[in-house]
Automatic annotation (TrEMBL):
Protein name, per record: Hsp70 family protein
Entry-linked Pfam families: HSP70 (PF00012)
Family affiliation: Belongs to the heat shock protein 70 family.
PANTHER family documented for this protein: HEAT SHOCK PROTEIN 70KDA
Length: 829
């Protein structure tokens, strides 16, 4: 059999991977050498430089951390994440290890089916950033998969559940909780096609986090108490292997607790010095459910957000499609079904959640024509004809269009006919006479529930058959995917921590956007100085540093023929295809040259532990200040965000990750992501508090201003005061923050004018400049000026005081803020 479509789909998972094949309307999981449906995503290299993939590597990782690696999917596209296998001295990057898993799956196919495949659809989390998608493509190439379209995991899951569904005009919610990632996708099925309406996800939310919580909050404390160990912890080098063994034991226990109320973890730990410690710890389902709760809350919040952004509620969703091993947990299913604490939507678990993604990938693969099948056919042998076909291998129509062109010789008098011999009765298209150039178009008739193979018959004017290649095509009626959406907005970072978003999330792919930028530094070719550097960001936040930097476009002095002055134009174009692979082009008009593929799709390196400690402490202080203010103002929106921070245990997550990041690079990367979550959440609190704080400020400023203007201003000042008070009230009524801030500032300006006319402003300015005396360049001269100012203030010499203030301002390293016109009132002057 010669394949015309890819047909094979791969779920390249954090914990386990699988490969499936489409056979008609059914999918088949290709079992591995251990006769298992899934292969652990684990790699080991021994001292003889022999490389192992799968179960043997995963089991070995319990006692040989130095020569094994697991869960490397989460490091894809991140620099500084190479793994050194100490016994062999070899180093592999995350994509190289992923390539070894893909090679193993290819070998399974060859062993089970005899096919040496070079094409397969590979799934990625919808929340994967562009650099991780690009790394997945590189892994496929390293594994010998020359044609490997990428497919989002929620889309694959929806295909697995709905390929032969008769449902129409319904919404589904994909709940995909894997080993290391989470995706929530709202799907609309209509007219035999489905569209991803909206998506929310988290690359660092999965079953492994529950495993670590079991280790850190249940197993480690129990073992430490039993043996009097004070330093047993995830971030301690002495216990690296032992803690890894506890992690695998926690995962196994969690799975067993899906069917039992309690289990016993019985094993033996060994520290770096070879001392052994027996462990015998009972875990209960209730304990694990308590630890899983914050992670389930995070996932439910993402689902609710995806629904709300789509303008939908639980009542609009027909069912939730469960995907991923953790969804086998009875507690998780109960929580999701709960109308109050969960989603309150019917759950569909008709598919195996562990293999659903691989099966859906295979279904999608059946819609993708192989590159050589779609390419123009080679000239046929003498006496034979070739037909170039244009059609969709899978589609919702029972009467699909097919067109093409017959080549290889004279086509005058030739006719083509399509025959479905398995139909009852046999269906024939009738003879279609070819146009003078051999072209034709017709419709077929296909049955649901099976693959329809049509025989292609070419005949001459006498009805005699002529040989033709290919001599058949296959079409299947099934629900298909429309254009996939972009799951995160793509933009560029600008000066001032700003973002220019180029392609918004939800945009159907492929997509293209062009923008004109200007350089903020010049490039000197002769001196080798300067560089055009444009950070490419992925996220949703208006502050550039709150988003992920997935790469940057760079043009260095060595790439230009002449100098590029500051302020030069750069015409930037970004193109993203259906697999979320990006191409960037920068045209520099002054050079009349285009720089293509200059984008370096890599995320930042692993953050340093000391940096994580500093940032975590800073954010804890910022959160405490925001919490105090929210409580003081009793602001419901701010308090709601704070409640979400507490329910999702973001602060506790960060604290645990910071400790683990001492020796665990995975924890460092996850910690960086959770810190970003914390920063963004605190930003939400501060943004929510902006309006009540502004209103409070206005209500404090107005009476203070009224007192000053009434006592010291002239009649025209009092008229301006009345107008300003009315304008402030109007801005409050309109709930317009920008306008209210402007009106308050106008009132401040009026008060400053009054105080300046009376001379009081100079006393106020002198009081504030005295406080800044330690920061002034010449302490002795500053002290003399302050003494002079005090004498002038005591004698009422405003002119001298004004001169002293000007001198003191000139001695500061940077201009001081303007004086607060209301501080005189607070100090009782």
């Amino acid at each position: 059999m010669t394949r015309t479509t890819i047909d094979f789909g791969i779920d390249l998972g954090t914990t386990n991977s699988a490969i499936a094949r489409l056979n008609g309307v059914d999918t088949e999981i290709i079992k591995n050498n251990d006769n298992a449906d899934t292969t652990p995503s684990a790699v080991m290299i021994d001292r003889r430089d022999r490389l192992y993939v799968g179960d043997i590597a995963r089991k070995r990782s319990e006692q040989d951390v130095a020569n094994t690696c697991v869960e490397f999917k989460l490091r894809m596209g991140t620099t500084g994440q190479d793994k050194l296998f100490e016994a062999s001295g070899r180093t592999l990057s995350p994509e190289e290890m992923s390539a070894e898993v893909l090679k193993s799956l290819r070998r399974d196919v060859a062993q089970r089916t005899g096919e040496d495949i070079s094409a397969a659809v590979i799934t990625v989390p919808a929340a994967f950033d562009l650099s991780a998608c690009d790394a997945t493509r590189r892994a496929a190439a390293l594994a010998g998969l020359t044609h490997a379209p990428l497919l989002q995991e929620p889309t694959a899951a929806a295909l697995a559940y709905g390929f032969q569904s008769a449902a129409d005009n319904v919404f589904w919610l994909v709940y995909d909780l894997g080993g290391g990632t989470f995706d929530a996708a709202v799907i609309n099925v209509r007219d035999g096609e489905f569209t991803v309406v909206n998506h929310r996800g988290d690359n660092f939310l999965g079953g492994k986090l529950i495993d670590w919580a079991i280790v850190e909050e249940l197993l480690i404390p129990a073992v430490a108490r039993e043996h009097g160990l004070t330093d047993l912890g995830r971030g301690r080098p002495r216990w690296l292997g032992a803690v890894n063994k506890l992690k695998l034991a926690a995962e196994a226990a969690k799975i067993r607790l899906s069917q039992a109320d309690s289990v016993t973890v019985f094993d033996e730990l060994r520290d770096a010095e070879g001392r052994t410690y027996e462990i015998d710890v009972e875990l209960t389902r209730a304990d694990v459910e308590r630890l899983a709760e914050p992670f389930i809350v995070r996932s439910i919040n993402l689902c609710r957000r995806a629904l709300a952004e789509s303008g939908l509620g639980p009542g609009d969703i027909e069912k939730v499609l469960l995907v991923g091993g953790p969804t086998l947990s009875p507690y998780l299913r109960e929580r999701l079904a709960d109308p109050a604490a969960g989603l309150g939507i019917a759950l569909d678990h008709s598919q195996d959640p562990i293999t659903a993604v691989a099966r859906g990938a295979a279904i999608f693969a059946g819609t993708q024509r192989l590159a050589d099948a779609a390419a123009p056919a080679a000239p046929p042998a003498a006496g034979r004809y070739a037909v170039e076909l244009e059609y969709r291998p899978v589609g919702p129509d029972t009467e699909p269009f097919v067109g093409g062109r017959v080549t290889g010789g004279p086509t005058a008098g030739l006719s083509i006919e399509f025959v479905n011999p398995e139909a009852k009765p046999v269906w024939r298209s009738g003879r279609i006479e070819l146009s003078p150039d051999g072209a034709f178009v017709t419709t077929l008739w296909a049955e649901r529930g099976r693959a329809n193979t049509f025989r292609i018959e070419l005949t001459d004017a006498t009805g005699a058959a002529r040989p033709v290649t290919p001599d058949e095509l296959t079409y299947t009626v099934g629900v298909v995917d429309t254009q996939p959406p972009l799951t995160h907005s793509i933009g560029v970072g600008l000066d001032g921590n700003e973002v220019e978003w180029l392609i918004k999330r939800g945009t159907p792919l492929p997509a293209r956007r062009r923008i004109l930028l200007r350089t903020t530094v010049g490039i000197s070719r002769g001196q080798g100085e300067g560089m055009i550097r444009i950070p490419v960001l992925e996220g949703e936040y208006d502050r550039a540093d709150r988003n992920r930097r997935i790469g940057r476009l760079e043009v260095s002095p060595g790439q230009v023929r002449r100098d590029v002055p500051e302020g030069s134009e750069v015409d930037l174009t970004i193109v993203i295809d259906e697999s979320r692979l990006v191409v960037a082009r920068a045209y520099v008009p002054i050079l009349d040259e285009e720089f293509e593929h200059a984008i370096n799709l890599r995320t930042e390196t692993v953050p340093e532990h000391a940096e994580l400690v500093r940032e975590a402490e800073a954010e804890k202080r910022r959160l405490a200040a925001a919490r105090r203010l929210a409580t003081e103002l009793d602001d419901p929106p701010a308090l709601q965000v704070l409640a979400r921070i507490d329910a999702e245990r973001i602060v506790e997550d960060v604290a645990a990750m910071v400790e683990a990041a001492r020796v665990d690079t995975d924890a460092a990367v996850t910690c960086g992501k959770r810190l970003l979550d914390l920063k963004a959440a605190i930003d939400e609190v501060e943004d929510a508090l902006e309006w009540p704080m502004l209103v409070q400020e206005a209500r404090e400023v107005v009476p203070a201003a009224r007192e000053i203007v009434t006592q010291r201003g002239r009649p025209q000042h009092r008229q301006l005061l009345a107008a300003a008070e009315n304008a402030i009230q109007e801005a409050i009524t309109a709930h317009d923050a920008v306008l209210l801030r402007q009106r308050v500032n106008e009132l401040r300006t009026l008060v400053i004018q009054v105080l300046d006319e009376t001379g009081d402003l100079q006393y106020l300015a002198f009081d504030e400049l005295q406080v800044l005396q330690p920061e002034m360049r010449d302490p002795n001269e500053a002290a003399q000026l302050v003494a002079t100012g005090r004498r002038a203030a005591e004698t009422g010499d405003v002119a001298t005081l004004r001169h002293v203030n000007e001198q003191l301002r000139g001695m500061l390293p940077s201009p001081p803020p303007p004086p607060d016109p209301f501080s005189t009132v607070r100090r009782g002057r």
